[in-house]
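SAMPLE LOG
Freezer: B-3
Tube label: C17
Construct: single chain, 361 aa
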Amino acid sequence: MSSLGFLTWQTVGGMVVLPLGVIVFCVLLGGAVTRRVKTAIREERYSDSSFMGVFLHSLKSLPTLLGLLLGLYCAVNAAPVPQFAEEMAENIFFTLSAWMVATFLQRTLCQVIELRMGKGGGYSNSLFLNLVSAVIYIVTFVLVLDFYGISVTPIITALGVGGMAVALGLQETMANIFAGMHILLTDQIRIGDHIRLENGAEGQITDITWRYARIHTVTNNVIVVPNNKLAASIITNYDMSADGAMIASIEDVAFVVPLGVAYDSDLEQVERVTLEVARETLRRLDPSLNIAEGAPTAPAVRFYNFGDSSIDFNVHLHTTTFRQQYVIRHEFIKALKKRYEEEGIEIPFPIRTVRMERESG
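STRUCTURE (predicted):
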């Protein structure tokens, strides 16, 4: 039998070839699974909100690492290695396996939170996502320490005392954290909701972090509001119905455009022309809206006042999204002025006659 020094080819095969073969096989198997997972995600075979969609996004490249760990574990158990090396390999395997499980749980829970609390469109829930991730990894770290036989009681005690000291020194920060959690847990404001604060600030909630909330205004600016100020503010939520439920994706947002015409105008003609322009504008900018005659969301004209220089009326319009009303109002006013000029309908402006009287000498 041929040999390499004191090693036989059989020994070399048992110590090197077989373990390497096991590792390569497991890595290739894990890599194949990873490629299948990424292909399914790239081709969008499953909806992101479905169980399989969440599962695949949580896996991503984890099968390759799992294959490597499994190959190393099998190789160590198959090869004649010293006892301390086997124990070290088992510890490393447990640590990395715990990290993989924590990563999978973190990805899954974060996706569920985003699906439950977010509306999509690039919005995020930074506060909850960071808290969930921190809790998962801290618990995993404590479990790993316990597996190694390290007592976690002194660490927890130290963290408790240190946490109290930090909380006293960062009262405002802690107030913002708990206010943010309260806002999200009560479900009165959700990521993507369009709100108006009592000070008149208005926009769409794009993120709630551990310290502040971001509000994207219709003028494409960003308002940053501390969470405790937001929680204490009187808020109008345009994306929530009266019973507290989220309004469906096709909404009914009503708004009014005030107008006035001259006293010698034919009001029947004014009403007809105004409704024609309103329907044309809505049909062009919001095709999903039901504007059929008699429908609750159809445009309407309501005369209500004999003004100083005009007969005043309101044009009641509807749209399916809150932010769309500004574009519709803009286009409607432009189109209506042009049509009034073509029809000879006058939009008057106030005129004042000033009479100067001489004082009698």
